[in-house]
Write a structure and sequence with these properties.
The complex is a heterodimer of chains A (517) and B (335).
Chain A (H helix, E strand, L loop, with lengths): L4 E12 L2 E12 L3 E5 L6 H8 L7 E6 L2 E3 L4 H6 L2 E4 L11 H6 L8 H15 L14 H14 L4 E5 L7 H16 L3 E6 L2 H7 L2 E6 L2 E7 L5 H9 L17 E11 L5 E11 L2 E6 L6 H9 L6 E7 L6 E3 L5 H6 L2 E5 L15 H6 L14 H13 L16 H14 L4 E5 L7 H16 L3 E5 L3 H7 L2 E6 L2 E7 L5 H8 L1 H4 L12
Helix pairs in contact in A: 8-16, 12-13, 13-14
Chain B lengths: L1 H34 L7 H19 L7 H29 L4 H27 L5 E3 L1 H7 L10 H8 L3 H19 L1 H11 L1 H6 L4 H26 L2 E3 L4 H13 L4 H15 L1 H7 L10 H6 L1 H16 L20
Antiparallel strand pairs in B: 1-2
Helix pairs in contact in B: 1-7, 1-10, 1-11, 1-12, 2-3, 2-4, 2-10, 2-11, 3-4, 3-10, 7-8, 7-12, 8-10, 11-12, 11-15
Chain lengths: 517, 335
């Protein structure tokens, strides 16, 4: 097969502040080819594609389309150059119909009837199933995605970029999508697909380009690749971090989760048959591709997520009483000593109020204890100062609005407050996201301290190196199901990486098996 | 018997249409603004400024010994449009360009606009040395109130359809054109997209700020005409009379579920409700209410609006909801 490059990137660099998202990336996508872009979270895949589709503008580097250098400053430029991107978060107007969304932003004569006909003919050509007059808010996720794809095709895009298109699809819908993509490839279109899922890469793509920490690592012909080669390339070798890991001190069961099931608003299982035990004096790591149900799991334990079936039993360390958390309110669960320090994408989203100062944020958790009508700020102020000193929070004073602190310092305040309340179970999700090495270590040490105090720590992490170094046991979760447990002292990253994509490749796998116990 | 009923019905209908018209102008303007995602609570102020600008022009041109009829119509209209355009531009600059809080800006604009109206109203009253605190523009308003001469000869048909001054037809035409543009043209599709999901509109290549500016400024000008219409109706300016109409116009937007053609129906209904108290004797009903009860009647439009709100939120139909990005600023770097 002769290869004509449809898209070429040369030395593309993009930085956000001090963070380098992409560094000197060179990449080629050929005509009639499906190129998969593979990389861990934060490896700069989406940023790179956003530069081709006009959302971001590169700091340096060149983009060539069909051998001609182009400057893409807006999504419109991208369309004009035949580039269309289907974003992970759909860009559709809910109250408009599919056809209206498809013609949105186009110029020329406005005729919805002819547009509807054209949409129908595109749909027929590629085997889509769509009702152009249906409102977006009445559509399922996969229908919405179809609208996005047709929108791009309607604008005569020859290079289609799909950002994790299967993250929200059922396996059947994914297969259908892949059929459509293969048909487009035969039409001579260039498809670039961003994904975490190795089996999709292997079954769909012609070539794989691997990014790691913003840099282009290599590109491999899919026919010459297998899962372990790709995992190796994606995770890479890294300087080993040394995190002190003591043997668990007399671990006893603290939290027993049994057959937990949760549905999201669309009625799709976000958690399915999740069973595990968290023990005191132990760090249980949770590994998995982002959005595999980690958030829902922690929220279910904290009482913030509706549980459709299953049990969460809390064993009180003092009385040895078994309590079912399912029947309790979030406040009651907190009073038992279960603490959630959730660090979502926007760090302030859950747990802290940005416009309030550190002292007042401390009080958010303890206001119920006050007896007087008037606020007593002394105790929370002492706590705030203690956290500032012990965690080296960089802030002008304790009365500075949290919003003004840098991300890492906000996270320290949040984790510090949750720890200060002497928890018995501490759940931390991505507590080091966006933190520099120093702060990350401080958080790891805090978690280790809690472990030494006999707290059952549940740590949701992204960095496999850290998980392997820090955790006593690691639970790997994929698509809301447990893919397996590994011993933190014996497991390798590659082993976890393979487990992370296991459920995804076998959607209806049997019950989770214990790899090492 | 039937004759009597018909004449009463025609009277109630025509006076309701006339009374609802300022509110219709205000609501049409506000719908256009809100469809771009901007909640302009400054509408009462915009209407006051539109009203006083028109009155000022009418007043000074009224001093000219020989008034040209075309200029008598044109000058106050232009002044009114200009005054309300300035108000719209202030609102846009603050909320679109500087991304200030829309509620605060709108309320400030209301206070500001009413102040402007009262100040210049009082100034002109000073000039004329009259005892009653109002500005009279009788000559101008007589011209504005001119109706088709043959309408009265066509019986009830003429009364219902042809007996109005041209501003009434203008208000109705603007409302229907606004509906047509919003729901039948590409321009309207783009505008609705901006108000629903500016990030999507932006990604589709629509100039979000341009649409917001145009919708808000044109909306303000339409609303300003409402204020002027009211002044013409009352033959002049009286302080503090326009503000309540502005709030009713904003209520009418909700009543009309953000559709200008629905606002026409709503405006006639509100016109009826607003003047229900005054209509009681005209209807031949001999009910005496104690003094001050007219204020109770004036509450009815708001109660009706609340009922509509309850019904539409209970129905939970997405088409009945306000634009989803209403009241929120947008800037691209946020995504």
């Amino acid at each position: 097969m002769d290869k004509i490059p449809a898209l070429e990137l040369k030395n593309i660099t993009k930085t956000f502040g001090s963070i380098v998202a992409n560094k000197d990336v060179c990449l080629t996508a050929n005509k009639g080819e499906i190129l998969a872009i593979l990389g861990e979270n934060g490896s700069g895949k989406t940023t790179l594609m956003n530069m081709i589709s006009g959302i971001y503008f590169p700091d340096a580097g060149q983009i060539f389309i069909n051998g001609r250098e182009v400057v893409i400053t807006s999504p419109k430029d991208a369309f004009d150059n035949g580039v269309g991107m289907i974003h992970q978060h759909f860009k559709l107007v809910d109250v408009l119909t599919a056809a209206e969304n498809i013609v949105l932003g186009l110029e020329g004569r406005f005729n919805l009837k002819t547009a509807t006909k054209e949409v129908a003919s595109i749909a027929q050509k590629y085997g889509f199933d769509i009702d152009p007059m249906k409102k977006i808010y009445e559509m399922s996720v996969s229908e919405k995605q179809t609208v996005e794809i047709i929108k791009v095709l309607y604008r005569n895009a020859n290079i289609l970029i799909l950002d994790e298109p299967t993250a929200v699809l059922t396996p059947q819908e994914s297969d259908k999508l892949f059929d459509v993509l293969r048909r487009m490839k035969e039409e001579g279109k260039t498809i670039i697909i961003i994904t975490h899922k190795l089996h999709e890469v292997l079954s769909l793509s012609d070539r794989v380009a691997v990014l790691r920490k913003g840099e282009y690592i290599c590109s491999i012909k899919t026919s010459e690749a297998d899962e372990s080669i790709l995992t190796e390339a994606m995770v890479g070798k890294k300087i080993s971090l040394n995190i002190e890991r003591k043997e668990p001190n007399n671990p006893v069961d603290r939290l027993v989760v049994k057959d937990l099931q949760c549905l999201n608003r669309e009625g799709v299982h976000v958690l399915q048959d999740v069973s595990f035990t968290a023990r005191s004096g132990e760090i249980l790591g949770i590994a998995g591709i982002a959005g595999s149900g980690q958030r829902e799991l922690l929220e279910a334990i904290a009482g913030l997520q509706h549980i459709s079936s299953g049990e969460i039993t809390y064993i009180d360390p003092k009385t040895d009483k078994h309590e079912n958390l399912r029947d309790k309110t979030p406040v009651q669960i907190r009073q038992l000593g279960v603490r959630l320090s959730f660090v979502p994408e926007d760090r302030l989203g859950m747990g802290l109020v940005g416009n309030m100062d550190i002292v007042d944020n401390m009080m958010l958790r303890s206001y119920g204890k006050g007896k007087s009508v008037f606020l007593k700020r002394k105790e929370p102020r002492d706590l705030a100062n203690e956290i500032i000193n012990s965690l080296e929070v960089v802030t002008p004073s304790a009365s500075t609005a949290v919003r003004k602190l840098s991300g890492g310092n906000v996270q320290k305040v949040l984790v510090g407050r949750e720890i200060a309340s002497t928890p018995t179970v501490l759940m931390a999700a991505y507590p080091v996201r966006g933190l520099d090495i120093n702060s990350s270590y401080m958080i790891y040490n805090l978690l280790n301290q809690q472990k030494a105090n006999g707290v059952a720590v549940i740590f949701v992490g992204e960095d496999l190196d850290v998980l392997v170094e820090l955790c006593d046991r690691i639970m790997v979760i994929g698509s809301g199901r447990i893919a397996g447990f590994v011993d933190g002292r014996e497991a390798t990253k590659e082993q976890i990486g393979l487990l992370m994509t296991k459920n995804v490749s076998k959607p209806h796998s049997e019950k989770a098996e214990e790899v090492t116990q | 018997m039937f004759e009597a009923f018909l004449s009463k019905f025609v009277y109630v209908l025509t006076s309701s249409i006339n009374n609802g018209m300022p509110v219709l102008f205000g609501a049409t303007g506000e719908i256009l603004t809100e469809k771009s995602g901007h909640l302009n609570l400054g509408i009462p102020g915009v209407m006051a400024v539109g009203g006083i600008s028109g009155v000022i022009a009418a007043f000074f041109y009224g001093q000219v010994p020989e008034m040209n009829p075309i200029l008598t119509i044109l000058l106050p209209m232009l002044a009114c449009l200009l005054g309300s355009l300035v108000m719209g531009l202030i609102y846009c600059f603050l909320t679109v360009t500087l991304r200030a809080n829309q509620n605060v800006t709108g309320l400030a604009l209301t206070t500001f606009g009413i102040g402007i109206g009262n100040f210049f109203g009082a100034s002109i009253i000073k000039i004329t040395h009259v005892d009653i605190p109002s500005v009279r523009i009788d000559a101008t308003s007589k011209l504005f109130k001119a109706t088709l001469p043959f309408a009265s000869k066509l019986g009830w048909f003429g009364e219902i359809f042809l007996s109005y001054r041209f501003l009434v037809y203008l208000g109705l035409i603007i409302a229907f054109i606004a509906s047509f543009i919003l729901f039948r043209t590409r321009l309207g599709l783009h505008l609705r997209a901006v108000g629903e999901n500016p990030a999507t509109a932006d990604a589709a290549g629509i100039n979000v700020n341009k649409y917001k500016y145009f919708a808000t400024c044109i909306g303000s000008m339409i609303a300003g005409l409402g204020g002027f219409f009211y002044c013409i109706d009352k033959n002049g300016w009286s302080n503090d009379t326009i503000e309540p109409l502005g709030w009713i116009a904003i209520a009418l937007v909700i009543f009309a579920i953000w559709k200008p053609h629905m606002a026409v129906v709503g405006a006639i209904l509100f016109g009826l409700l607003l003047n229900l108290y005054d209509l009681i004797p005209a209807l031949g009903l001999n009910i005496k209410f104690p003094q001050g009860y007219d204020k109770l009647f004036k509450m009815i439009p708001y109660i009706v609006t609340i009922i509509v709100l309850i019904i539409t939120s209970a129905r939970k139909k997405r088409e009945y909801q306000p634009p989803s990005h209403l009241g929120l600023s947008y800037f691209r770097e946020d995504r």
